[in-house]
Amino acid sequence: MTVPELADHPADLSGGWVPDVWIGAPAPGGLALPAASPTMAWCYSPRGVHLDDDHLVMADSGNHRVLIWHGVPERDEQPADVVLGQPDGTTEGRAAGGRGPERGMNLPTGVLVHEGRLIVADAWHHRVLVWNEVPRESDRAPDLILGQPDPASIEPNRGTECSANTFYWPFGIDVVGGRFYVADTGNRRVLAWDGGIPETDRPADLVLGQPDPAAREENRGGAVAPNSFRWPHDIAGTDELLLIADAGNHRVLGWPQHPDADRDADVLLGQADMGSAVEWPYGPQRGDRLRFPYALALDSGRLAIGDTANNRILIWEGPFTDGRPADHVLGQPTMAANGENRWSGVDRDSLCWPYGLSLHGDRLAVADSGNNRVVLWRRQ
Q1: What pTM does this model have?
Q2: Does residue 12 lie in a domain region?
Q3: What's the first-to-final CA gap in the chain, in angstroms?
Q4: Where is this region: Disordered (predicted)?
């Protein structure tokens, strides 16, 4: 594949995307470290975000909590309305500051609102939490727990062998094509349930990336392949398409039709072929390379990938299954650049390890983890 020279691209590679609202500590010119006592407006290393017409939901991962805004924030540093995982807006620490996992969290990552329900991947408690409605009061316990036998249990794989209803670091979640998908990162696989969010203890209908429900070796115990994962981390798609960010292999895999069984991917972004997992940590980058892509978002035919270790977001307009380079880049001045905050000061449009994305029409929410903030972008 021939990669266009940078001179072939317009001078402004952003495609009209501009930062609009900044949630988190203000830090023009320099990184703001998280406060010892958090607030409802500050965050520490957020790793997941969800945006729709009615909500902004942030996985404030470093503070082991989830923040919820009812209504999309309209001003910088706007405080959240609800906190989950902690007793109040100023407490931090794993498992609700030591109270226990019944209402607490440990490095929550994936967040999603689907058909009025809130779903949270409580990654280091090895479970997925579900609220039957988006809470309007803080410190509410979940209505449903997936991956553990009870609210107090937090062992990886339920303290036993890997199976079709256990998790080890579930980082990514989504409902795509009527299925509920979980990126079960520590087990190097993706699980799926037909019919949407399942009830507790129901085994997954599909195990993708491993030969059977008990297997959990990275890349199936061998070389990288079109049916293997190293660190599957995020999921996106449509009724016809499934995309999975295989962050540890520096690629995105795709299935143009949702698989009914474990099988090879047909679509590849970020690598030259299905047997490659090259990082390219040094030297100029390109619009068709990825380095630890932790985040995916797809909406209305537009694909955004959080190219995390390259400190940028790549955006494709229209078809992207031919492996062509991205159309736009956010956070960097060129497709070749990859410095943290452009090797300069923190600015509204700079990025440092963007770890989570949510694309909703002409709005894009970015969990800019290294800068301890979420930034809402809009397309002019």
Answers
A1: 0.94
A2: no
A3: 31
A4: 80-105
Q: What three-state secondary structure class fits 167?
A: coil
CATH number at residue 325: 2.120.10.30
Looking at the structure of the chain, the number of domains it has is 1
| 218 class by beta-carbon count within 10 Å (0-12 exposed, 13-18 middle, 19+ buried) | middle
Rounded-to-integer distance, Cα 131 and Cα 183, Å:
19
In which domain, by residue range, is 361 found?
24-379
Tell me the pLDDT tens digit for each residue of 118-154. 999 999 999 999 999 999 999 999 999 999 999 999 9
Q: Shortest CA distance to 305 belongs to which of 236, 376, 371?
A: 236
Question: For residue 94, what is the enclosing H or E element?
Answer: helix 94-98
Q: What is the pLDDT of residues 33-55, one digit of tens each?
A: 666 678 999 999 999 999 999 99
Mapping DSSP onto H, E and C, the string for 57-73 reads EEEEHHHCEEEEEECCC
Residues 6+ apart with CB under 8 A from 350: 311, 331, 341, 342, 344, 371
pLDDT band at 29 (very low <50, low <70, confident <90, very high): low
